[in-house]
Amino acid sequence: MGKSYRSELVGVFGCPVEENPTGVMEEAAFAKMGLDYRYLTIRVEEGNLKTAMEAVKAFQMKGINLTIPHKVEVLKYLDELSPAAEIIGAVNMVVNRDGKLWGENTDGKGFLLSLEQEGVTAEGKNIVILGAGGAARAIAVEMALAGAAKIWIVNRGVKRGEELTKLLREKTRTQAEYVKWEGALKLPAETDIVVQATSIGLYPDVQEKPDVDYDTVTDKMVVSDVVFNDPHTLFLQEAEKRGAKTINGLGMLANQGARNFTLWTGVEAPVEVMTKTLKREFGLD
Ligand code: NDP
């Protein structure tokens, strides 16, 4: 066969997706490893996911990332799930294995790795998680499996909050409690780690912050935010003012991206290149 002008395709489906920097990070990694892959950032509106997943097969794409609002909905269109994705009930990446779509969730593991890189572990800790959507579920399940002592799930919607709490109780050994989010949330004094896992503060709503009584944040707490665009969220700024150690969403993004790279290509990911690219993208270098 002569020269191939066809690249392998991966990408992301989401809405909004315009400000998602994953493509720059993955393409830097493909270039570094000399792989002929392209990462496409594609807007897929709610209601169009079925067609989009059929296109993954029709275009023989190697796989796809899913972001808001598709991470739970996508389960309907997959042939197989990893055990972790099965428990979590949400998928952030799919691998096309010869026309069969296999779903995995790398968000929670990426998040835990970003804590570990800052010397923080979940084992034995009291953890408050804001949110009960796809990201919160992945993080809660992985933190529970990593041996968290207690997890409070704080969510505005009762159904999703109670469902996640029940899941933690049934599938893990962690104590779990649902807290309905009404008015400014007071953090329990024994909190070790706070995880902001809602979409509040995500571009373009960078002026928004979760309704928390920020005077209940202490300098003993580790406060993290999954929002990565802009990574220096108002939520983290408030926590910094109270002396808390803060961890932004970039580390989670880089680490889950590295895992996705390996699952798609079979090649070990150049994590440092990916982290550096993200930092440059956000003007943090
Ligand atoms: P989902 O749509 O699945 O869940 C959204 C969550 O946010 C729900 O718990 C929802 O509560 C809550 N929420 C949204 N708006 C409000 C509000 N005004 N007040 C209170 N709660 C609110 O989204 P995902 O879980 O997929 O994504 C959440 C965030 O995580 C996004 O910002 C995304 O960019 C980020 N993310 C970051 C990653 C990283 O690598 N750093 C990876 C994955 C996601 P309710 O149930 O009441 O509606």
Structure characterization notes:
- The chain has 285 residues and is α/β, with parallel strands linked by helices.
- The protein has two domains: 8-105 and 251-281, Leucine Dehydrogenase, chain A, domain 1 (Rossmann fold, 3-Layer(aba) Sandwich), CATH 3.40.50; 108-248, Rossmann fold (3-Layer(aba) Sandwich).
- It is built from nine helices and twelve strands.
- The protein has helices spanning 22-33, 49-58, 83-88, 107-116, 134-145, 158-171, 234-241, 250-265, 271-281, and strands at residues 8-14, 37-43, 63-66, 80-81, 93-97, 100-104, 126-130, 150-155, 175-180, 193-196, 222-225, 245-247.
- The strands form two sheets. The chain has a six-stranded mixed beta sheet with strand order 2-1-3-5-6-4, with helices on both faces.
- α1 links the parallel β1 and β2.
- α8 packs across α9 (271-281).
- The longest helix is centred in the C-terminal third of the chain and has 16 residues, at 250-265.
- The chain is globular.
- The chain starts with 7 loop residues before the first strand and ends with a helix.
- The relative contact order is 0.14.
- The model has no long low-confidence stretch (mean pLDDT 95).
- Bound molecules: NADPH dihydro-nicotinamide-adenine-dinucleotide phosphate.
- The site of NADPH dihydro-nicotinamide-adenine-dinucleotide phosphate (NDP) has 27 residues, from α4, α5 and α8.
- NADPH dihydro-nicotinamide-adenine-dinucleotide phosphate binds at residues 68-69, 71, 107, 110, 131-136, 155-157, 160, 197-200, 202, 226-228, 249, 252-253, 256.
